[in-house]
Amino acid sequence: MKMFAFFDHWKKDLPASVVVFLVALPLCLGIALASGAPLISGIIAGVIGGVVIGFASGSPLGVSGPAAGLTAVVLTAIADLGSFEALLVAVMLAGVLQVFMGIAKAGIIAYYFPNAVIKGMLTGIGVIIVLKQIPHGVGYDRDYLGDESFFQRDQHNTLSELLYMLDSINYGAIIITIIGIALMVLWDSKWVKRSSMLSVLPGPLLAVASGILLAKIFHSTPGLMISKEHFVTLPSINGLGDLPHPDWSAITNPKAWKVALVIAVVASLETLLCTEATDKLDPHKRITPTNRELIAQGVGNMASGALGGLPLTQVIVRSSANIQAQGRTKLSAITHGLLLLGSVLILPGVLRMIPLASLAAILLLVGYKLIKPSQFRTYWYAGPMQFVPFVVTVVGVAFTDLLTGVGLGLAVAIVHILWKNYKVAFHYDVKTHKPGTPIHIQLSEDVTFLNKAGIKRTLHELPANAHVILDATRTMDLDPDVMEIIEDYLFEATRANTQVDLLGFQCHLPRNEAMPRTSAKVKREKTRAERVSL
């Protein structure tokens, strides 16, 4: 990207970067807390994800940072390796593996996720964000801000948290949340967008400013006061000596390599899923080069591990917030990383004044916009092949985690494909067959092992004493497994006194191998027949 073109849309990118920064800050801290890592490691990862990956990536709107999906992996790995410093070496090794994956063009995996599953993932993430942020919005902050898993580290879950919050409602937090949402909705209205002065100011920044002001007012108001644990917690940095450093002795530990492989695979899958989802949300329909994205993530993880940060992936919550804030280029992602760095170094006191309820209000609106209730109706009318994988993915993501939910959606989509290959175009109805009329079975251009069950069923249901024409004249690729089924049928046909004519099979046989056949001649001409397409 040319330097001048890089700043072509700065009027939209800079306000969007502020929104992404406000979303990313609590997520970076919350994920570090949940991972059992130093809080500063989350901020380091956020800065590297914004600046380093922002420059290296080819994604115009994707934002990278520490991911909630890796918290369990990191928490377990720290215990297995004995220290967070040893984990940093594994993060760097994972980055190296990701670079090799990108060079090997493993990014093509992203194009095999069905649209119904990707859209279901986005909707499911929206559902889990809304459900997770409601407790924070009413002042119940036992779970960390940014958790995206149904089952929590404290043995509770998303639904149980909604029950527990009823005993810990803080009315000051509720007022802050409601006013924050109202301000952001107002700033999304056409009236504000028509004003060149007002539209420059991001709605989420107003929500945070109002939250700080209201928290100050409520401080001396009984029943509305917000206690210290309901504000952003930020670590103090006295110098580079406070940053975690890799323990290089871990590089000879086989466990570190095992952890590196797990991080590389999980982080790459989450990145590819989020890359595909971000491209779907992009109003300008730009396509991210996925292999370059894997290389960028690898470079980012090497830098993050070296500087004391958590493992990184592209993350959909921050990316969707970027899109909703009308970001246009990667400048917004890079600037959000610089804002994270600058605010922690220069304005830590101001950040500690932000109530978590204000940040919950921002995330609640982000989640609602991801859900898009109209999508359920769209996929319903698209038919079961689209609707079922979509709904299964939504439910799976909302009530398990991202990768499990996507895996369930993919499994259902694959089952649908197998069932379609088994059912469609293979059924032969004996009742509709006219006696004395040849049965013409036309094989399609590509006959794969997925067609085995349907072909076997169709041939098995053919009546005895019939005249069957198996026609492969249009077939370009015939799977050997299917050939074996046809050969078996030829022997059965002899016993059933069935005449079978074969057309076009010779070119699908290995050289010098003859196709076993019945005593009838193989006809070269087409016969008027009842057709069953395979």
Quick gist of this model?
The chain is mostly helical and 534 residues long. 58% of the residues lie in helices and 5% in strands. It contains 21 helices and eight strands.
Give a verbal description of the structure.
With 534 residues, the protein is mainly alpha-helical. The protein folds into two domains: 3-114 and 170-384, no CATH class; 430-533, Transcription Regulator spoIIAA (2-Layer Sandwich), CATH 3.30.750. The chain has 21 helices and eight strands. The protein has helices at residues 3-6, 10-34, 39-56, 71-81, 84-103, 115-137, 158-164, 171-187, 190-193, 203-218, 254-281, 290-307, 316-324, 331-346, 348-351, 356-371, 374-382, 384-399, 402-423, 452-461, 480-495, and strands at residues 64-66, 312-314, 439-442, 446-447, 467-471, 477-478, 499-503, 530-533. It has a four-stranded parallel sheet with strand order 7-5-3-8, covered by helices on one side. Strands 1-2 form a two-stranded antiparallel ribbon. Helix 3 (39-56) packs antiparallel against helix 14 (331-346).
Throw out a few tags for this protein.
Transcription Regulator spoIIAA, elongated, 534 residues, single chain, two-stranded antiparallel sheet, 4-stranded parallel beta sheet, mainly alpha, 2 domains, 5% strand
